[in-house]
Amino acid sequence: MIIPYVIDNQTYKLADILNAILRNHQGQSMDVVTAYFNIQGYRLIKDGLSELGSFRLLLGEEPSSGENIGLKPDPSKLNQAIRADLEKEPFNEETLRLVEDLIRFLRRENVELKLHSKGFLHAKCFLFYSDKPGQQMLFERFKPVVAIVGSSNFTLPGLTSNRELNLAHKVLLDVEEAEDKQAQSAVAWLSENRPSEHIKPQNRQLIKSEVGARAIIELEQWFERQWGDAEDYKERFIELLDASKFGSKEYTPYQVYMKALYEYFRDDLDSVPEQIGRSAVELSEFQEDAVKKARRILLRYDGVMIADSVGLGKTWIGKKLLEDYAYHMRQKALVVCPASLRDMWDSELKKATIAVTILSQEEIGQADFPVEEYGNADVILVDESHNFRNRNAQRYENLERIISLNAGRGAAGERKKIILLTATPINNDLFDLYNQMVLFTRGDRGYFTSAGIGDLYKYFLAARRASGDSQGITSLFNLLEEVVIRRTRQFIKKAYPDAMIEGKKIHFPERKLKTEYYDLEKTYSGIYEQIVTGIEKLKLPPYNLESYKKAGIKRDEFEAGREEALVGIFKSRYLKRFESSIAAFRISIKRALEFQKTFESYILDGKLIKSSDFHKALRYLEREEEEDDATPTSRAEEIDSSNEAKAVIGAMETVDPTQYNLRKLHEAVQHDIEILMDIWHQVNGISAEKDIKLQKLKEILSGPLKGEKTLIFTYYKDTARYLFSELGEDKGAAFRKAIGNPVIKRMDSGADPKSRRNIVKAFAPKANKKEEWVGTEYEINILISTDVLSEGQNLQDCANLINYDLHWNPTRMVQRAGRIDRIGTEFDTLWLRNMFPDEGLERLLRLVESLQRKISNIDRVGFLDASILGEVVHPKTFNTLKRIEDQDSSVVDEEEQFIELASSEFLLRQIQELLACEGKKWIDSLPNGIHSGLMKRGAKGMFFYFQAESEKGKHNFWNYYDINTGRIVDNRFLIANLISCSPETERVIGDYDVFEIQEKIIEHILKTYHEKVALESVPKVIDPIQQTLATTIQNYLNHPDVDRKEALEIIKYLNQPMPGTQVKELRKIYKEFQENAVPKVLVEKVTAMREKYGSLSTEISSTERFNLKREDLNLLCFDYLCG
Q1: 431-490: per-residue pLDDT in tens?
Q2: Portion of the chain with pLDDT greater than 70, in percent
């Protein structure tokens, strides 16, 4: 082959030329200088290189900018560049073998590699020599053959595809190549005699070879000078290759675990605190970290939930975020909080000069609340957001309307930002959290598609079906990571041991449980078993009407299941109040009797009304004092004589009595009345003196807690009022005198917001900036309260808490403990006393547990909704009660960690601790693509972590392939548990086909990602009523009374996702249309609704449409899991 003089990768490719030379160069020498080298460049000519007698490679470095010219190059940058290039290579068997081949080649004695370190070297040259006869020195050059000098680096693009310019110098040209007529004519003008015409071909060949030889000789001399200035780089280069994903260096499973965590949390770890401007809000380190993360979440999703445990200062985190938007950005802000916290928010925000409108949750819950007045809010903070877990509540609907108004945008023209604060986002059911998340999504079930969650509703349904608490929560892990910030007291205590606030170290007291036993059976002496059995036998027909339908009448199966569960719940409620106090139980029996007798009166009158409607009417007849000895009677006459109650009954849909077996129904009512009357007569005479539980409370207050500030919690208002009557009013005068005349007060739902605020200040004057009240008649020493006090109150002046009732919902125990266990407490130990019946407990628990099992069975069939499930005692509660009784203080922490299990904060903290100990250099030394393996019980598979970068940020893909099932799991919490290990964990590599499994995972990533992206482009999930209305209006497009253009706009509006409140309004509009059938009115009403709410913006602020491709996936690490 004739070697061309100019090689530009267009007419001739440099790789082809080099291979042609190498084919005839076996056993001889080659020198290369290049600014850069990569393995794919090596692949192109490796066969020829392997046949050389000697090879020298000199690496230089090009300056990254003009400022660097003339400076000494940094070898570490070349190392990083080579490592980065290796990391970009796809992990496959071909490249793996290529790197192994390169390492073997470099380890040969006749191969040398150096790095030029005296100034930047960006020359590129390929020199070929033949050895002189009898040559002794391995790298002694003598006979020049070919030199190629130009712009091509020793890389795949440099040798094949880049537009390069290289010039070849040659010796030993053949005769035909030397006889170049074009060249001869080009130099003929140099002499009039044209002497070159007389040169013989063989002489011309020699002359041209001499010219080429001179160029090569001088290039060789230049090369030797550069080589002499260079440093050996061969071993370091081999180390880089060996440390890569293609090399043989072994990494520990702990290194892979830390690599996975570091890369996943890199943005969090590398983030620099953003300071928008001056700040009047001083935070502790852990609160600042929450603010930084919340800012990023708000930018991406326009919504964030701060769900730190009680007492950790969520208010201050929210306050800092409000400072961002309302103070620095001058946006309109709205705070929605419980009435009891309104003064606190008002005071705190005024101190920080943050202009905010504050609404109470009670205020926003009014049916006539003026929603439109607040529709231009840019940011809405909801404190104690778990109070918005019921989508059917008026307060929820009004808040949803505020968010939806103005197309979901605030006065600044951007999507409204929603900040939710709650320590208990899930009270009883996972859909408590779902309903709060819906406040972000505005009805768009595909809102979190970019996070890999295609349909939020189905995502929660799948989580609910998952077995067990933790499994259900961990199924939501990927969502929680996206929008929820959740740290527990224990986590903060461990992760931020030196946390300071306002110059003081934060103190975390020890929480201790103390069980206080009393004899429940003794209170109900001789009648305990009879009462429990009677409750068990109740039929409660008013709550179970479907079961009394006549034969042949179709039953509503959903309603029947719901009613059956309702019966179980009412029986459970009676048993809970039975344990709470004699007063609460007596009032329950009294109400039940009055209700059943009233129901019976209506049956005898041939009327049948739903139990829920009856209860609404009876509310108008409620009496403040229900503790009297009069035998309960029917209240039908009172209803008839009450205009309000009668109006309620009259406005309600009546049940058709002809569909029911009224005789059987009446017999069931009489059966219950007999049981309830018997119980009433037995409990009506039990006095406070015979109430063993009350006497035990007096014993505690006069003994270990004498003179101590004490908070007494009960679930029931009736119990709270009974205790206050016996301790704090005239009946308790002698008792108070005996224990030093403490001031005793009561708080329950009957107290107005102002009274509640004053009681809180008087009970904890230090914590609530009323130090002047300490030790005066204003200070309260003993406070009896229901859970109206269990939200957001600072009561850290107190170190003693008594739970008067059994913990049917352990979440409440955590909330209550959080009232006194707050930042700022000065106590070393907090005592949580729990009243437990030592006799009769087992019988009570067995009956409640039996009822709950029946309810759960009904729920599994799908007959229950959230309103029913909210009353259910969870199966694990019975085990928790036993642990509380055993004074196992860890149960409080575990209950508090209910969601922390599904939080990434504990993972983040592990990598933070490693960085603090080993430094960033340790983790940075781990290249992408490393792997290891470990033994993990029950696991057999492989974990792969891929990452893809786009303009908007990084996309992380954690996947675990289960070899036994063939399933691929992407839940990061479950995967983190699989790969978690310690520095001592032994490396174990499984005998799996890594490339086959990797291919399955890559295909899974691409398939699921593009399925999620496709969901964004297809029509959104909308309520059936929207489709019905759109179709109806479509049918009237040509109607003379309908504006076609306007109707088409409405159809477009109806085909977008809508919040539940708007769907409700549409149902009402359609119902009216069915009655009047006037298309013009229909169009006008939907148009008015569209103008009111606007076309909702369902786009997330930073939503991107990233077209993920195979080559975008960068392998960061992988693990073998061996069971």
Answers
A1: 889 999 999 988 888 888 877 788 898 888 888 877 554 455 677 888 888 899 988 877
A2: 83
Do the domains 281-503 and 688-829+873-879 sit in the same CATH topology, yes or no?
A: yes
* Residue 560 buriedness (CB in 10 A; 0-12 / 13-18 / 19+): middle
Count CB atoms within 10 A of the CB of residue 104.
11
Per-residue pLDDT tens digits for 392-418: 899 999 999 999 999 899 999 999 999
Provide the 3-class DSSP secondary structure of residue 1071: helix
Run of H or E including 125: strand 124-130
Looking at the DSSP bridge assignments, the partners of residue 521 are none
Distance, CA of 821 to CA of 803 (rounded, Å) = 15
Mean pLDDT (whole number) for 161-181 = 81
d(CA 113, CA 90): 25
C-alpha distance across the termini of the chain, in Å: 60
User: Do 377 and 357 touch, CB atoms closer than 8 A?
Assistant: yes
Q: What angle do CA 44, 947, 96 make, to 5 degrees?
A: 30
In this prediction, residue 202 carries a pLDDT of 66
Q: In the CATH hierarchy, which fold is given to the domain comprising 688-829+873-879?
A: Rossmann fold (3.40.50)
CATH topology assigned to domain 281-503: Rossmann fold (3.40.50)
Cα 305-310-315 angle, rounded to 5 deg: 55
Cβ 942 vs Cβ 968: under 8 Å: no
Which CA distances in Å does 171 have to 6, 209, 217, 369, 433? Answer: 15, 4, 11, 96, 80
Q: Name the average pLDDT for the chain.
A: 84
Beta bridge partners of 1120: 933, 942
Distance CA(926)–CA(244), nearest Å, equals 9
- 2 to 8, 176, 993: CA distances (angstroms): 16, 10, 47
- What is the pTM assigned to this prediction? 0.72
